[in-house]
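Thread: quick sanity check before group meeting

JM: Hey all, I'm pulling together slides for Thursday and realized we never actually wrote out the predicted structure for the chain we discussed last week. Dropping the sequence here so it's in one place. If anyone has concerns about the input, flag it before I start.
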Amino acid sequence: MHGRYPTTLAELAVPVPGALRLPPHVLRYRSDASGYRLSFSDWLVQHEASESRPFEANK
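JM (edit): ok, ran it. Output follows.
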C-alpha cells in the first residue's frame, strides 16, 4: 500500500491477526528490499509466510 514493507510490526496501522493468541516474543518478523518473512514456532513445527507464500508448516 505504501510501496514498502514496515520495518517492524508495530508500524502497522491495524492489529496483527492472532496477536491476542500468540505471546509477542513468539511472532518473528523481518523485512528487506525484496519482501518480508513472518514466522512462529513451537518445539515441533515452524510456521512461516512471506510476501509470495502463505503460511506453511515445516518440521
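AS: nice. DSSP finds no helices and four strands in the chain. The chain has one domain: 9-58.
JM: adding both to the slides.
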